[in-house]
Design goal:
about 60% helix, about 400 residues, single chain, mainly alpha
């Protein structure tokens, strides 16, 4: 199985895994090597997400925009390697019991992730709306003369923008994250997105196109933009609830492929769960529970990731946030800080007070720049996730339906 991850962080672990596999190549059948490599590579990718920025400067902060992009890359890489195994060493077993049943279950869960992709895009659009208010506030506090204190008019304009932002964030949170009911979908036929396959570039992006030929017709029936009654929390429970753990008999009967399907199901759940945790979504909720057998090499990293994000959601300053994304926390903190600093301010501002305003405004500018640089690439990756899931589901359903594969 060719390696698709080119990141320097994961390369040492992956290289060790390949060396280990090559040493055992004479003792273990090729199919077992492929399966073993897939499981360990999934573990490597998840471990990379747990890297500590304090000890590894190349590692982004947990739940930041950069980290969320890395999370999506890990999913796309895993999905491509999953497909390579099933259509490679697993091709003759796909349509036979019990693998056909396990794959059908996985595909039913995967299609539920399409609505989540649409909801996540709406959430990213919402953050763009917030950024507009932040930009207005930052521009209001800018001064042609850095030595001159901020004037009353500047402070009033900034406070008005931040007040509007606070109201918008509270309204969306109280409404469960309903973002304008745009009724849009990555797969809407005739729209720009139905022909866009996500061309964002990232150092860990996996190779390959997006949707295969003819996939547009499938998009219409698979997912539309979410309705008012739709719930991200319920969707996560549907994706992760009761994932069938492969029995020893199933693993033996499928030559180990049952464990590959289970691995991909667990990765799908933890990735979608983390995305909903980070990004504003309609009826957000992290109640869906995850438990995996410790016998899998990726079980430890999956559970650690799950527990770390859950811990973040329980922090006092995060409990009532619209999302756990680091940049959302910065928006809330910067806005609150500037409002507190300028509350009942007397003009002209005292030098000490003006310095505080300038420092807070500078942080506001940095948050705006981070959002400007990170939101579009992240949306392209969410779009790519949508199309890759559609392509995988379409190909597997076509394969399962072929009469000559049932023998």
């Amino acid at each position: 199985m060719p390696a698709t991850d080119s990141s320097s962080a994961a390369a040492p672990l992956t290289s060790l895994g390949r060396s280990f596999v090559s040493l055992r190549r004479d003792q273990i059948p090729p199919a077992d090597l492929e399966i073993d490599a897939f499981q360990h590579h999934a573990a490597d990718l998840l471990l990379d997400l747990l890297s500590d920025p304090s000890s590894d400067p190349s590692s982004p902060d947990l739940l930041s925009l950069a980290w969320t992009r890395r999370l999506l890359d890990s999913f796309l890489i895993s999905l491509e390697e999953f497909r390579a195994i099933l259509f490679g060493v697993g091709a003759t077993a796909i349509a036979r019991a019990p693998l056909d049943r396990l794959l059908t279950d996985f595909l039913d869960r995967a299609v539920k992730a399409l609505d989540l992709c649409n909801a996540l895009r709406d959430g990213l659009d919402l953050i763009r709306q917030w950024r507009k208010h932040l930009t207005i506030a930052a521009a209001a506090l800018a001064s042609a003369d850095p030595a001159a204190p901020r004037g009353e008019g500047q402070i009033r304009r900034a406070r008005k923008a931040l007040t509007d932002l606070t109201i918008l964030m509270l309204d969306d949170k109280d409404a469960g994250g309903v973002v304008g009911q745009r009724n849009r979908s990555f797969g809407r036929v005739g729209s720009k997105d139905s022909h866009t396959h996500g061309h964002g570039h990232h150092r860990r992006s996996s190779s390959g196109g997006s949707s295969g030929s003819g996939s547009g017709s499938h998009l219409r029936s698979l997912s539309w933009s979410v309705s008012r009654s739709w719930s991200a929390a319920r969707q996560l429970q549907a994706i992760g609830g009761g994932i069938p753990v492969p029995r020893a008999h199933d693993i033996t009967a499928t030559g180990g492929l049952a464990s590959v399907v289970y691995t991909m199901g667990a990765v799908l759940f933890v990735v979608t769960w983390a995305l909903v945790a980070a990004i504003p979504c309609q009826d957000r909720g992290l109640q869906a529970h995850l438990t995996v057998p410790r016998s899998f090499p990726w079980a430890g990293p999956v559970m650690t990731l799950y527990e770390r994000i859950l811990d973040e959601s329980k922090k006092k300053e995060r409990k009532h946030s619209c999302g756990l994304l680091k940049e959302i926390h910065q928006i809330e903190r910067c806005s609150r800080q500037l409002m507190e600093i300028t509350d009942a301010a007397e003009f002209p501002l005292a030098e000490e007070k003006d310095v505080e305003v300038q420092e807070a405004a500078q942080e506001l500018v940095q948050v705006c720049e981070s959002l400007k640089d990170g939101l579009d690439p992240l949306e392209r990756q969410v779009r790519e996730m949508f199309h890759r899931i559609v392509r995988t589901r379409t190909e597997m359903l076509d394969y399962l339906s072929r009469p000559h594969n049932t023998g």
